[in-house]
Design brief:
Helix content is about 45%, strand content about 20%. It is α/β, with parallel strands linked by helices and about 290 residues long.
Length: about 290
């Protein structure tokens, strides 16, 4: 067992991170590379995984032979799609074994020390995931067009819609709507041109402006914040209904929502115990031979 190693891989749409640990759980090295989102193809993902892993082995001062004594846990964006997961299982990796899960699953495992619990990720996108009795159930996270309630993208889009409606006299004007419209170019016609090429992250970029105005007492901004928090509450209640006793909020909007949640969530909303690479290591250990 002293010669056994564990490798945790957190592969997202922007970066792939690796953490190498020994049999006692002591971290030996880390690495980072480009995207490992499986929707970009197994070739892209594999190259990023191996590049990040190579850095971790180099930092640990280990040679190529260590890879054959390594049990790896991969948490990859897109691994919840069966055909993409199969592409990983049929790819060649130099490790003794590979355990695969989605990036959300390893984030949840990391947040709860490898045990049961739930997470609500609220960044540009959003997704909830509960692990109860070792079984993972995801809610939301289907993308900006059809899902992602409580996300920064939906929050920011609400601000854009409010600004356009205010010009048409269909909703109140405020300092926020004026600021949003000015950023869009000054009128609804400019907003249409902007929206034609806007990505979810572009809508999410309006969220700091909304929060700034909400803190200054802007009524429209306060209402938009309340709507976003209400969306988060719906997701949190669903996670509780699935049997989660602890929910970790994660992502860029986590602290904003946490501060505005009803008091009843106080006992169940917790700080994450660890990060996604900790979860990937827990996945690797759980599938390794005893």
């Amino acid at each position: 067992m002293a010669d056994l190693f564990y490798l945790g891989i957190d592969g997202g749409g922007t970066t792939c991170r690796a953490r190498l640990a020994d049999a006692s759980g002591r971290a030996l090295g880390e690495g980072v590379a480009g995207s490992a989102n499986l929707t970009l193809g197994i070739g892209v993902a594999r190259a990023s995984i191996l590049a990040a892993a190579d850095q971790a082995y180099a930092e640990a001062g280990l040679g190529d032979d260590a890879r054959g004594r390594t049990h790896a846990g991969f948490g990859l964006a897109g691994a919840n799609v069966p055909s993409l997961a199969e592409s990983v299982r049929t790819a060649a990796f130099p490790f003794a074994a590979v355990a695969l899960a989605s990036d959300a699953v390893i984030a949840c495992l990391g947040a709860h020390g490898g045990g049961d619990g739930a997470i609500l990720i609220v960044g540009t996108g959003s997704q909830g995931l509960a692990i109860v009795g070792g079984r993972a159930t995801a809610i939301g996270g289907w993308g900006f067009a059809v899902s992602d309630e409580a996300s920064g993208a939906i929050f920011g889009r609400s601000a854009v819609r409010a600004a356009v409606a205010s010009v048409d006299g269909l909703a109140p004007r405020s300092a926020l709507t004026e600021a949003v419209m000015a950023r869009l170019g000054g009128g609804p016609d400019h907003a249409v041109e902007w929206a034609a090429g806007a990505k979810p992250r572009d809508y999410a970029a309006f969220v700091p402006l909304v929060l700034e105005h909400a803190n200054s007492g802007d009524a429209v901004a306060a209402d938009l914040l309340a709507q976003a928090v209400a969306s988060a509450v719906l997701l949190l209640d669903r996670l509780l209904a699935l049997g989660a006793g602890r929910i970790a909020l994660m992502g860029g909007l986590a602290e904003t929502y946490r501060a505005a949640l009803p008091p009843r969530f106080g006992p169940v909303v917790v700080e994450p115990q660890g990060d996604a690479m900790d979860g990937a290591l827990a996945l690797a250990r759980s599938r390794a031979p005893r």
